[in-house]
């Protein structure tokens, strides 16, 4: 596979391709915000962070810091000309704390100076006096519940009378469950560069997944109209949701500095600042009651979930919603009662992270299923299969959406067979009987994930395609590139639709002066939405070019010939003509014929709606499916463990670019594994983040990729009504990693007389696993083992 | 020794004077802020992510008979300590831009990529691309290495490069495909043309420098060290700087006076002192120690397998690991269990102390003012005709690769000829107390006892008297206490069942119990 080969393809769509920036990355030529050449006299910006989790600001004394030569300005809430709010919509998130601070790390002031070194020095000299507030900081979900501290409103879904069904179920299980936080750990930390222009305009480079929101927030904080602001988002060095709303703050602080000083301002966070200031994946605390019959069919489920939202609401309510939407995973739940709330705590404001609450929701039902299987002494894979959605009436989700084209059973049959699940499970059971120290475990993990923004209006996208008279094309769309390969896919669609080779097309940086009012590149929807918009724009252009081509071929009635023209590989042909027309000549001819060569495309997803107060609707355009079979090995003396074998079968519809999709599946899976097994965010008992750099916060490293790691994409899986039959891929594979819990349980259970696991805290660090083993051996109580994981 | 007035370095084959560069400036900041070479990234400034990786030409060393490239974390390298060295960055691999000084803006490079670059791109080993330059440079070391023979070595080479996007499979496959490839080109030419005596003298030239408020001294002999130290008595020593560097890059301290000892030739040799004692110079990089230990001292090699990452081992030294005296340093438990001697030197002369006397208190050693650690001396071939010695080292951490120990240990047990009686026992732990420490109570329980599970279980109980570990963000006191005991149990299982001394590829645990 090589670049040139792809350029020669008739259509690059549905073929493997390199990442469109691969060679730039590998040669060190790819430019990120921190790499851009700076205008003369650019200042550095540096936030001064709160050292208190919940306190009143009595006074901020900046005089000593301002006295340093080279410190140009220090801004506080008082200096904000517009609205002091960085939130996406909740209006509860002062950019600079004004009278009280609500978490440790909260920016209280921002220093602007001629060098970063000077900024740091000045920041240390800014004197902030705090006064204690009567209420002590809230540092856990449990405390928030006790003190009734919540964001937003509860979300409830229900069907039938769960209480009643539970009362008569053959097997009744109940429990509480804590999932952990996760730092995004994008390799590129947050960065912004603001360049003030004449007439109060701004050009701002921002590492953001949501340029339009950054534009809106900068306009608000400066008190000016959005038309004065252009946000340009070059590629990001990773986003994963962490740059969906949280890039706002840093672009706003940079712009404020430009406003105050008239100079360009650059803000770049070092790793520790980034980890201390910005939000993470929401930990959830949940309690559940579940009832099964003897056959292992889930009859009723009651779940209460509470997300740790942190100090501000941010996207927490939508994340809570998606958690509830994924409490079913691929399973039909006949009777149910789900209730969710978002706790307000004095911690960083938790935010979007790949899966957006979905993984946290699915975790709960997986816990229920795993425990159910242990108690009924059934193979968990078989028990789960029995609970898959089925024919009506077993095809309705808890929120009333009908599940169409369910691929769970098909994937199950193919993967159980290809991974040799049954034989391996039996072999492992034998192995575990014979080996006291090393235990193994195997699990089947199915995933169903709903695709669409659940705030329905966000499901819209735009594109702007411009063709120049020399036949070269600029492609603009509203999505941002953070490594996920969106640009690679958009290029393929554009080349396919226009019938040109990839080297005709230049992908432009995402910018708000090209496509306005865009949604965040999030919810896995980037290629679904923007792909349609790009295709629509290209089709408009092609429709305009066709008569020109027909005329160039000398047809008397060009309009009559448009359907017979063929565009492919940069060449236009007609069956009745020997000679061919190059795309370049065609575009020149179009220009000479005064035909417009630029077009916008706009798309909105049809027929989706949701009524949150009723807990009913059709929030998703469709569902993505996948499954994994995972094997682990653990050491019962140290709790250390390793995932040794993984087989994945994932549904991406008819893949737009299979090599890109495979990368998303693998990367998402390993990221999920990190969340569940290694990554641990620990706060001190005053609310200081203790693990704020990779020294103490451990994401997976190379050797943790399983030795056997096989990813297959489901074949013959065209998805109707989605761009070229494809499906979204960004988030769903993250959930495949949930299977590590099932596999670990299988291994740990071998220490228990009845083959059960009574406590397995998340993340499953070696310590958590050793504690779980100790519980199984009766040396530790489940409460003791779980205590350490409570949020 | 040759002297120079001002230090200089070569970046992608161009020479740059460091006369105006403050000595606390890291190579990463020099590349980005002074030279505008934006390919090399900062992801953490603490050696833990690898985004800043570059390679340095390294003439033959104690373990490598030929010149090599070594991947290093530019975020932790103090620029003047690289005087006379050849450094390559990601931009320097593209041949047309030999010299690597086109910014890449305004003209996408059309020149053929280096095979390392093509290999990674073709496997889709980059997604967001931010880790990529560092990955490429670690792969570059692999590409020119001749000793990549075992599967684990690729993990070891690349585990210092975190990637949040790809899930690593493509990076691993690309790395395997270029390991030891050594393609024709300027980088190979440099390796194949042996450094001339003149070039060597230049590279080892001594200098002292003062830029603005910062002094930097670089002696390359011990005698110069003593005179420079006398000249600036407050100066602090820096060897690899993988520990000290963090004060500059993370705590933003300015260290006013530094003496770089990493090129002092007397500290960079290894030799057999007699039949039994092996001496390792304090400034020998850990990757060399690891390569040599493979045959000489398997327990030492086993501990180094999961020590930092390749970049850290290429730069960090044995001396630095001991002298920083961290309670969670991984070398001290090994040296304590093996019964090492330390050779200390000062302008007044030299002395030898037992490693048992070296660690005095939390981060405090027996070194006197203006005294250095010169060499570590280790006994080899501890088994004899009358008895047999078993030595094994263990490291448990949250993540196996590139992580600091939650708890580490090394055990050395000498048994009678028929393996029934314990004659000698040295059990040393890291992470269990304020200093690396031997479990003397447990040792006493074992000595003279039968080599049996019962004796081991008694020793496990005695560990409770030896240590009262603390809880921190790495592990709880419960876990440390539990695992301290279990490692001893595991050691007994390993030895009594004859489990292999070396770890397998991608072990699931530090204990080799797979077949038991
Ligand atoms: C990312 C990362 C991972 C790491 N992983 C590990 C790990 O897994 N295990 C572990 O144990 N450590 C680890 N370390 C710590 C460190 O790398 C080691 O301790 C290393 O051996 C230090 O050696 P150095 O030459 O770089 O020391 P330096 O930083 O140069 O020096 C450390 C201290 O020792 C003094 N010193 C150095 N040499 C001498 C001498 N010869 N005589 C007297 N004083 C001297 C210096 O003055 C300084 O105070 C890690 C560090 C980083 C940054
Ligand atoms: S910047 Fe992370 S290792 Fe250097
Ligand atoms: S490609 Fe994004 S971190 Fe590696």
Summarize it.
Chain A is an alpha+beta fold and 791 residues long. In chain B, α15 runs antiparallel to α16 and α16 packs antiparallel against α17.
What features would you describe in this structure?
- Chain A has 791 residues and is α+β, with helices and mostly antiparallel strands.
- Helix content of chain A is 30%, strand content 24%.
- Chain A folds into three domains: 5-29 and 460-604, Aldehyde Oxidoreductase, domain 4, CATH 3.30.365.10; 33-134 and 188-277, Aldehyde oxidase/xanthine dehydrogenase, a/b hammerhead (Aldehyde Oxidoreductase, domain 3, Alpha-Beta Complex), CATH 3.90.1170; 400-453 and 611-756, Aldehyde Oxidoreductase, domain 4 (2-Layer Sandwich), CATH 3.30.365.
- In chain A, helix 19 (658-677) links the parallel strand 28 and strand 29.
- Chain A starts with a helix and ends with a helix.
- Chain B is an alpha+beta fold.
- Chain B has helices spanning 27-34, 115-122, 132-144, 151-158, 169-178, 186-192, 197-203, 222-231, 245-249, 286-296, 298-305, 310-315, 318-323, 331-338, 440-446, 453-466, 477-496; strands at residues 8-11, 14-17, 53-58, 68-73, 86-88, 207-211, 214-218, 236-238, 257-260, 270-272, 277-281, 341-346, 349-354, 359-361, 364-365, 371-379, 387-396, 407-416, 422-430, 437-438.
- The mean pLDDT of chain B is 95.
- The chains are: A alpha+beta (791), B alpha+beta (516).
- Chains A and B meet through helix 2, strand 27, strand 28, helix 19 and helix 21 of A and helix 2, helix 3, helix 5 and helix 17 of B.
- The structure holds flavin-adenine dinucleotide (FAD) and FE2/S2 (inorganic) cluster (FES) (2 copies).
Tell me the name of the CATH homologous superfamily of the largest domain in chain B: Beta-grasp domain
- At the third CATH level, what is the topology name of the largest domain in chain B? Ubiquitin-like (UB roll)
Going by CATH, the architecture of the largest domain in chain B would be Roll
- State the CATH topology of the largest domain in chain A: Aldehyde Oxidoreductase, domain 4
Quote the average pLDDT of chain A: 96
Total beta strands of chain B: 20
Q: Give the CATH level 1 class of the largest domain in chain A.
A: Alpha Beta
Could you name the CATH class of the largest domain in chain B? Answer: Alpha Beta
Strand order of the largest sheet of chain B: 2-1-5-3-4
Task: Determine Rg of chain B (CA atoms, Å).
Answer: 23 Å
How helix-rich are the residues of chain A, as a percent range? 25-40%
- Neighbour order of strands in the largest sheet of chain A: 3-5-1-12-9-10-11-20
How many angstroms does the end-to-end distance of chain A come to? Answer: 48 Å
Number of helices of chain A: 22
Q: Which regions of chain A are unreliable across 5 or more consecutive residues at pLDDT < 50?
A: 1-7
Give me the number of helical elements of chain B. 17
The CATH superfamily of the largest domain in chain A is identified as Aldehyde oxidase/xanthine dehydrogenase, molybdopterin binding domain
Give the termini separation of chain B.
Answer: 58 Å
């Amino acid at each position: 596979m090589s670049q040139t080969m792809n350029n020669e393809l008739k259509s690059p769509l549905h073929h493997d391709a390199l990442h469109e920036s691969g060679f730039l990355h590998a040669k060190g030529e790819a430019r990120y915000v921190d790499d851009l050449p700076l205008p003369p006299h650019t200042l550095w910006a540096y936030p001064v962070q709160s050292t208190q989790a919940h306190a009143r600001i009595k006074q901020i004394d900046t005089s000593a810091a301002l006295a340093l030569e080279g410190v140009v300005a220090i801004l506080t809430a008082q200096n904000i000309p517009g609205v002091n709010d960085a939130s996406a919509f909740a209006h509860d998130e002062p950019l600079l704390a004004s009278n009280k601070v609500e978490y440790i790390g909260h920016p209280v002031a921002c220093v602007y100076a001629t060098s970063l070194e000077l900024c740091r020095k000045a920041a240390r000299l800014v004197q902030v006096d705090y006064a204690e507030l009567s209420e002590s900081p809230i540092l856990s979900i449990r405390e928030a519940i006790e003190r009734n501290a919540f964001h937003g409103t509860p979300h409830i879904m229900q069907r039938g009378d769960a209480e009643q069904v539970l009362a008569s179920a053959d097997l009744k299980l109940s429990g509480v469950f804590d999932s952990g936080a996760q730092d995004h750990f994008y390799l590129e930390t947050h960065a912004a560069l603001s360049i003030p222009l004449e007439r109060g305009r701004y050009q701002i480079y921002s590492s953001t997944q949501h340029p339009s929101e950054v534009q809106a927030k900068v306009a608000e904080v400066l008190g000016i109209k959005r038309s004065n602001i252009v946000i340009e988002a070059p590629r990001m060095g990773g986003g994963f949701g962490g740059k969906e709303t949280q890039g706002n703050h840093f672009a706003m602080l940079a712009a404020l500095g430009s406003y105050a000083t008239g100079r360009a301002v650059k803000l770049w966070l070092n790793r520790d600042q980034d980890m201390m200031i910005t939000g993470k994946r929401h930990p959830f605390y949940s309690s559940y009651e579940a009832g099964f019959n003897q056959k292992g069919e889930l009859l009723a489920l009651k779940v209460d979930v509470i997300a740790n939202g942190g100090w501000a609401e941010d996207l927490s309510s939508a994340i809570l919603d998606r958690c509830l939407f994924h409490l079913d995973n691929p399973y039909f739940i006949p009777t149910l009662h789900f209730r969710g709330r978002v706790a307000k705590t004095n911690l960083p404001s938790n935010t979007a992270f790949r899966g957006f609450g979905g993984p946290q929701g699915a975790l709960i039902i997986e816990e229920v299923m795993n425990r159910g299987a242990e108690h009924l002494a059934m193979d968990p894979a078989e028990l789960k299969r029995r609970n898959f959605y089925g024919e009506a009436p077993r095809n309705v989700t808890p929120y009333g959406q009908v599940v169409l084209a369910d691929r769970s059973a098909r994937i199950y049959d193919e993967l159980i067979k290809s991974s040799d699940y049954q034989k391996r499970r039996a072999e492992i059971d034998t192995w575990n009987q014979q080996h006291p120290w090393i235990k193994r475990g195997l699990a089947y993990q199915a995933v169903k994930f709903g695709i669409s923004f659940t705030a329905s209006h966000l499901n819209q996208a735009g594109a702007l395609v411009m063709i120049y008279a020399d036949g070269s094309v600029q492609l603009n769309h509203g999505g941002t590139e953070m490594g996920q390969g969106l640009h690679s896919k958009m290029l393929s669609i554009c080349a396919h639709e226009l019938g040109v080779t990839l080297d005709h097309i230049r992908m432009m940086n995402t910018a708000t002066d090209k496509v306005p009012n865009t949604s965040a590149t999030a919810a896995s929807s980037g290629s679904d939405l923007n792909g349609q918009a790009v295709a629509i724009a290209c089709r408009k252009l092609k429709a305009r070019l066709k008569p020109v081509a027909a005329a160039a071929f000398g047809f008397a009635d060009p309009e009559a010939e448009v359907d017979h023209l063929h565009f492919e590989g940069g060449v236009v042909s007609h069956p009745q003509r020997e000679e061919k027309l190059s795309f370049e000549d065609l575009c020149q001819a179009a220009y000479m014929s005064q035909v417009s060569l630029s077009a916008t495309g706009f798309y909105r997803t049809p027929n989706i709606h949701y009524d949150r107060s009723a807990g009913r609707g059709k929030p998703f355009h469709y569902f993505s499916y996948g499954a994994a079979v995972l094997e682990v090995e653990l050491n019962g003396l140290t709790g250390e463990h390793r995932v040794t074998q993984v087989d994945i079968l994932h549904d991406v519809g008819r893949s737009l670019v299979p090599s890109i999709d495979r990368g998303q599946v693998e990367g998402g899976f390993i990221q999920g594994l990190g969340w569940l097994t290694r990554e641990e965010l620990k706060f001190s008992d005053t609310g200081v983040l203790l693990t704020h750099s990779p020294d103490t916060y451990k994401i997976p490293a190379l050797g943790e990729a399983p030795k056997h790691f096989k990813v297959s994409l489901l074949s013959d899986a065209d998805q109707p009504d989605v761009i070229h039959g494809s499906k979204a891929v960004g988030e769903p594979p993250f959930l495949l990693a949930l299977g590590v819990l099932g596999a670990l349980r299988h291994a740990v259970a071998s220490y228990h007389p009845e083959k059960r696991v009574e406590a397995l805290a998340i993340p499953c660090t070696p310590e958590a696993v050793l504690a779980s083993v100790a519980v199984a051996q009766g040396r530790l109580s489940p409460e003791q083992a779980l205590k350490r994981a409570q949020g | 020794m040759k002297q120079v007035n001002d230090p200089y370095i070569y970046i992608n084959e161009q020479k740059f004077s460091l006369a105006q560069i403050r000595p606390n400036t890291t190579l990463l900041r020099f590349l980005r802020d002074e030279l505008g070479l934006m390919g090399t990234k900062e992801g953490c400034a603490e050696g833990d992510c690898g985004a800043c990786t570059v390679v340095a030409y390294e003439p033959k060393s104690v373990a490598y008979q030929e010149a090599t490239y070594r991947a290093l974390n530019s975020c932790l390298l103090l620029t003047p300590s690289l005087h006379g060295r050849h450094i390559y960055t990601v931009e320097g691999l593209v041949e047309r831009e030999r010299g690597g000084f086109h910014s890449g803006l305004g003209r996408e490079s059309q020149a053929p990529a280096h095979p390392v670059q093509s290999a990674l791109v073709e496997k889709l080993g980059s997604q967001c691309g931010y880790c990529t330059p560092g990955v490429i440079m670690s792969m570059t070391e692999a590409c020119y290495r001749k000793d990549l023979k075992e599967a684990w070595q690729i993990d070891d080479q690349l585990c210092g490069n975190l990637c949040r996007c790809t899930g690593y499979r493509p990076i691993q496959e690309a790395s395997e495909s270029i390991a030891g490839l050594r393609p024709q080109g300027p980088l190979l030419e440099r390796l194949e043309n042996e450094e001339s005596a003149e070039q060597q003298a230049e590279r080892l030239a001594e200098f002292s420098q003062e830029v603005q408020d910062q002094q930097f001294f670089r002696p390359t002999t011990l005698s110069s060290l003593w005179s420079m130290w006398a000249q600036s008595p407050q100066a602090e020593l820096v060897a690899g700087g993988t520990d000290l560097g963090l004060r500059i890059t993370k705590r933003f301290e300015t260290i006013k006076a530094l003496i770089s000892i990493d090129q002092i030739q007397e500290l960079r040799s290894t030799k057999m002192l007699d039949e039994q004692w092996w001496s390792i110079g304090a400034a020998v990089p850990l990757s060399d120690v690891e390569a040599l230990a493979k045959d000489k001292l398997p327990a030492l090699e086993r501990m180094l397998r999961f020590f930092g990452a390749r970049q850290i081992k290429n730069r960090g030294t044995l001396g630095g690991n001991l002298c920083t005296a961290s309670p969670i340093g991984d070398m001290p438990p090994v040296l304590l269990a093996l019964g090492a001697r330390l050779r200390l030197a000062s302008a007044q002369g030299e002395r030898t102390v037992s490693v048992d006397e070296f660690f005095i208190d939390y981060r405090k050693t027996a070194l006197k003012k203006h005294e250095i650690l010169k060499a570590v001396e280790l006994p080899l071939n501890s088994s004899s005709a009358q008895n047999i010695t078993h030595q094994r080292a263990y490291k448990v951490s949250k993540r196996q690769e590139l992580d600091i120990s939650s708890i580490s240990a090394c055990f050395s047990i000498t048994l009678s000829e028929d393996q029934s009686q314990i004659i000698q026992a040295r059990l040393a732990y890291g992470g269990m107390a304020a200093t690396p420490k031997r479990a003397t109570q447990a040792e006493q329980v074992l000595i003279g006892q039968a080599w049996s599970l019962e004796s081991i279980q008694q020793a496990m109980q005695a560990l409770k008297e030896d240590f009262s570990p603390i809880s921190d963000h790495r592990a709880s006191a419960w876990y440390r206490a539990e695992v301290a005991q279990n490692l001893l149990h595991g050691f007994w299982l390993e030895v009594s069942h004859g489990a292999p001394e070396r770890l397998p590829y991608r072990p699931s645990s530090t204990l080799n119990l797979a077949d038991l």
